[in-house]
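Section 3.1: Structural characterization of target chains.
Under the original work plan, the team committed to producing a structural model for every single-chain target entering the pipeline before any wet-lab resources were allocated. The record below documents one such target. The sequence was received from the expression subgroup and is listed exactly as submitted; it comprises 208 residues.
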Amino acid sequence: HGMSKATKEEVSELRSEWKFYALMTFVGAFKSTFRFPERSCKDWERALCDPLASGNEWIVETFIRSWAVREGDGDVLVVPQDWEAESMKTIRRLFGEEDAHGFLDVETLSRLDIMHAVFEDALESRNDLANVVAQSAEKLDKARRRAKIPALQECVRQVHGEPVGFDLRGRAYYTVSNDVRLFRADKTAPTEEEDPSWSTPYVSLEEV
C-alpha cells in the first residue's frame, strides 16, 4: 500500500534515528525470550507511525510484552485489564515526568523513545537476558575477527552489534537479522553526551 506524504516524512525521520536501529537489534536478539512476533523493519516503521491502523495491532502486544512479561514468566502473557494505565507507571518512572503521555497518545518519534527506553530498561534489570547478551557478543566478536574488522568504541551497547564495514569517509555500516537494509553511522565513537548521526541509505531493492 502507498504511504501518504505525512507518513513518508515520519518514516524518513525514523530512519535517521539510531534508536530505531537499536530497537530492531533488541527485537532480533530477544525475540525468543519475549515471544515477539516476526516482523520486518518495514512493518515496524508503519506500526510506529500508526499503531491503530488495520494490521498494525501487533505492536501494542509487543509493547505490552516488553514490560509486562517478567523474568521467569515463560510463555505466559497476562495482559492487565487497564494496560494503558499500568504502562504509564513504567513510562513515568523511566522519563521522570508526571505529565508524560501514553504509548498511543504521542507522535511517532516519541513512541520510538518510549519503546527504546522500555527495552533498555529490560536489558538493565533482567538477569535472564545476560546469557543472551553474552552469546550475541561472542558471535559478533567471532564474525568481526573473521572479517578482520577492527574493534572500535561502539555507537551503542555491545548487544547492538559491530559494524559490518566502513566506507572511505570512515562511516560505519550495520545490519539487522530480519531485514536487508543497511544502517549507517557517521560517528563511530561519540562522547557520552553525544548521539551518533544515523541514516538508512539502503533499504530495499524496490526503494533504491
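The first strand starts at residue 165 and ends at 166.
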